[in-house]
Amino acid sequence: MLTQQNNTKPELTLNFSLRTVGEWRSFLNRTEKTPWTQTFQYAIAVAKVGKQSTQFVTIDRGAEVIGLVAIQVSKLGPFQSVMINRGPVWFKGQETQENHDAFVAALKKTYPKSIFRRFRWMPEWAGEQATALEVEHGFKKSQQSFETLWLDLKPSLETLRKGLDRKWRGHLNKAERSGLEIFADMEGRYLDLFIKNYDLFKANKKFEGPDGAFFKHEIENALPFKDAIILWARLDKVPVAGVMVMKHGTSASYRVSWNSPEGRVAQAHYLLIWKVIEILKKQGIESFDLGGILAQDQTGFNVFKLGMNAEPFKTEFFK
Q1: Per residue in 285-301, pLDDT tens?
Q2: Best exposed site among 41, 178, 189, 200 by fewest CB in 10 Å?
Q3: Which residue ranges make up each domain of the chain?
Q4: Is the pLDDT at 5 greater than 60, yes or no?
Q5: What is the topology classification, in CATH, of domain 150-314?
Q6: pLDDT in tens, 201-218
Q7: What 3-state class would DSSP assign to 167?
Q8: Could you tell me the fold of the domain covering 13-139?
Q9: What is the bridge-based pairing of β-strands 251-259 and 238-248?
């Protein structure tokens, strides 16, 4: 959410200097509610599968870094496509309207309008004020939007559990009594099997989304930094469900999961996500992005996420 300041409008620059993975990860630790789309591992997956390169850009005020933005770029002959997916993200205390306006000015200077350039931007701020601001800056709102839910992990586990929808707690209670065994694979020893199960689940359910190859690239590049949490649910030593959550800075995101008929009967996903929350709390993660919803859909996985009573967030696409 943008805040107002009365100080002099800051002059900001976009710094395209090369950054190491370590530098970028340390910068993310200074942000709040950072989406997975601003991470190195996501950029590598996009490069491998989507054939887009990523520019890791710091937003500087003089010698001070105050924000970040990952920009995906692809070229075909003289034509260039530029995409900012849920960015920029600001260091704590820097998400002001003045900084936003200065960022837009720097962005337009870097990527001026051209018949050879396709520009798309999904800002990581929401609400009518933010939408009006982008239109005021000359951007056109598209028909696409993105909605997700942010769960605040700062309260105690007891408070978080009480905050769940009554039916959600009921399903969790059932899962805890079902005999499920939760197994953590933090080294990715069974990653190929996890991805195979996801691809089969996706094919059976016929839902849209990245294929397993995309997530495999993302996970493989997160594992060396212990940024991927992979949990399996087993019944009688047989895997029946799985989930992978990605950490980035003080935030984490629900990235990919799969289920089985046996897992659904045992309510495995309720226990898996609750165990994820326990792990994230222990590791000091403060915000949990539940990974996108369809606001008008009141069935299936959408209801599962809505039942956690997290804070809704909606942003628009602009061009």
Answers
A1: 999 999 888 766 656 77
A2: 189
A3: 13-139, 150-314
A4: no
A5: Aminopeptidase (3.40.630)
A6: 999 988 888 999 999 999
A7: helix
A8: Aminopeptidase (3.40.630)
A9: antiparallel
